[in-house]
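Checked the freezer inventory, then went back to the computational side. Two predictions to log before the end of the day. The first one is the construct we discussed on Monday; recording sequence and tokens without edits.
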Amino acid sequence: MTRQYQTERSQPVWIVLDCGRLMRSRVALVAAGKSMLPVGEQNSHIHSKLDHACTTAVALAQLALYSGDRVGLLAYGQNIQQRLLPGRGAAHLRQLIESLAQVHAETGESDHLRATATLNRLQPRRSLILWVTDLAETAMRPEVIDGAVQLLRRHVLLFVAMAQPEVDEIAQARPNTVEQMFRSAAAQEMAGRRELLLARLHEQGALTLDSDPEHLTSSVLNNYLMVKERAMV
């Protein structure tokens, strides 16, 4: 008599979306520092960070469900906006898309610790969590970082901070005036601080991305496939 064991390939995947004020920022697709569209057509192709996050959420859900995983959703601002327990199948995907259609960006700060506590209660067992958010421009340690550290005690976390392309352009541009010099210095300080925060989170075990909206979906899907290939969950 022999026993054969097979590694469990089906895992819960949670998509966590921050719907607070930082996700209200509007961004346009850019290439080589310029919009890819004529001036008259640009406004219709400018979306918020939350819009891009929702697009990525749908793509990840489709890939994860195709791969045999169960997918859940948690969208939050000051309170929980949408909550969907992990499931499978076409009907579950439709329900997830309907839930995403109802999320909206809020004007206030998100309660990240409330979202963390809710997720830990809903998902006590180890899972993969995609958390799409952004980092506030503050000298203090952002609350979202504290929430991420709490999740790392139990889960595999892919933490995505959505960059603002315009800030990167200002930081990299050569200033010609005193005003431009101060703007460039401020942008460089913001970029450096983001890099430091994400590096420290990475040291504690998180997978981190500082992605512009244009490349968000491809970056997230590639990281998901890497987690599956390495059986990290």
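The second is the one RB wanted added to the comparison set:
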Amino acid sequence: MIWCVEDDASIRDIEVYALQSTGFEARGYEDGNTFWQELQSEKPELVVLDIMLPGMDGIQILKKMRENKEFQAIPVIMATAKGEEYDKIHGLDLGADYYLAKPFGVMELVSCVKAVLRRCQPKRIDHLLKTGNLIVNLDEHTVTANGERILLTFKEFEILRLFLSHPGMVYTRDQLFNDIWGMDYCGETRTVDMHIRTLRQKLGIYGKMIETVRGVGYRLEAIE
């Protein structure tokens, strides 16, 4: 939802219409006080904020938003009168993400909104561990090799995750046992050997990457 705060009804209607016609949800507010009241119960994705507003003006609103942890991450595009260099600089200093000088075209507004949203979106982190065509997806808890799904038990998955997180590192049986099963588990370290054996079998050609280090334990040698 994009909120447009503009006291000129004709400009406000054009802004809202332009955004809605390009796929955005948009809503207009004619003054800063109404906008601020609505902000207490709902948060927009982005605000297009005019500086010259009745009551609380755009600079005051921006300052309050950036001082409030609840609202400080909301992107704000300031709309300034053409030639008002002080307002532009002051707005950017207070934390505006962009500014538009009036008069601006509707497509300029839409392009600006898209650009700011793109820039302000949190970067997606792919929780993937890879070696060759062996891929472990930590979010989906899946393993694929050459595009084929491999079904692993929880412990097998955790062993593979540990190895791929630290390729080349040697783990003793005791380390693997404690990391994967935990200190409170009532078992023995031969359990590790059994799980390594079945994991190698399930991984097929990639199982060869899990090497036995004689007298020490196991490690995984990653491939490019």
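For RB: The CA atoms of residues 143 and 151 lie 7 Å apart. The helical segments are 9-21, 32-39, 58-67, 85-94, 106-120, 154-165, 173-181, 190-203. Let me know if you want it refolded.
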